[in-house]
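Changelog note: in this version the structure field was regenerated for every chain. One regenerated record is shown below for reference.
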Amino acid sequence: MKSAIITGITGQDGSYLAELLLSKGYKVYGFNRRTSTPNTQRIEHLKDKIEVIYGDVTDSYSIYRALKKAEPSEFYNLAAQSFVGSSWDLPESTCEIDGLGVVKALEAIKNCNPAIKFYQASTSELYGKVREVPQNENTPFHPRSPYGFAKMMGYWATVNYRESYNMFAVNGILFNHESPRRGIEFVTRKITYGVARIKLGLDKAITLGNLDAKRDWGFAPEYVDAMWRMLQHKQPEDFVIASGHTHSVRDFVIAAFEAIGVKDYEKYVKTDARFMRPAEVQELVGDASKAEKLLGWKPKTGFKELVKIMVDSDVKLISEGGKV
C-alpha cells in the first residue's frame, strides 16, 4: 500500500487531496499544526480514515519524526500562510512558513529517505507583474507580495534539491482554484457567502476591493488530481495548472448574483480602499498545455458552473445554520 503525508491537510486542497488519495487506496497521514482551537472542519468526515501527526513545517525535527513514523512514498507540501492579503501584515512569518518551511521539508526528506517523492504547492502569484500573457512554465517571475516572494523561495528550493540531490521534487504552479471549502477570507468565498446572505435576506450589500483584477479560476478537486498526476509522471517536472481563461472579480460578482437570479448587482456591491493591495497583480491567466500533453490533465468545470456550485453550497450552509 502506498502512503502519503499531506501538510496543510485541513485546508481546501488538503481535504480534497486526502479524499482523492484514499479513493486510490493510499494510507493517508495528515501533518497538522496543533492549535488551541482545532480547525478540522474540512476533514471531519475523514477522521476515521486518516491518521493525523502533529507538527509544524517550521520545526525540522517534527517533519523528520513524521517521516519516520509514516514512511511515506509521497509527500505533498500544501502547508502555507496562503492568504495574500495577510502576507502584507505578516511578511516574516509568511516567509518562515512558505519559504523556509519548504527547505526544512526537503532537507528532512533528503536526510531520512531521498526516494520520497515531493510535491510543492507553488502559485500563479509568482508571476505577479506579468511579463507575458498567458503564463507558462518558462515565463519569468515577478512576485508582487510577501506571499509571492516567499513562495518563490519555496519554488527554487524545490528545483535546487531536485537538481542537486537527484530527488523527485516538483512544483505545481497552480492558478486560482476555488470550491465550497475555500476560506471565507478569500475574495471568491467572500462573494459567494455574501451573495447567499443577501438572497436569504440577512444582508443588504457586500464590500469588496479591486473589482477589475483578473484571475484564472478553476475547480479545486480537479486541481488536486493534477498534483497526484505530477508525482506519477516518469520524471520530476514543474507544471502550470490552469483553466486558460481569465475573468475579473467583477465577472465573479456578476456570476454569483446571476446564480440567485439577480442581474442588477451594482446596488448590492460597495468598494473600500482598505481591501486594496499595496501592489496589485492585475491579470493572471495560465497555459496548461504541458500538463495536458504529458499528464493527460484538463479542467472540466466552467467558470459560471464553479461560481454557482459555491453560491448554492453557501445558501444551503447558511439555511442549515452551518459554520464557515
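Spot check on this record: The first strand starts at residue 3 and ends at 7. The first helix runs from residue 12 to 23.
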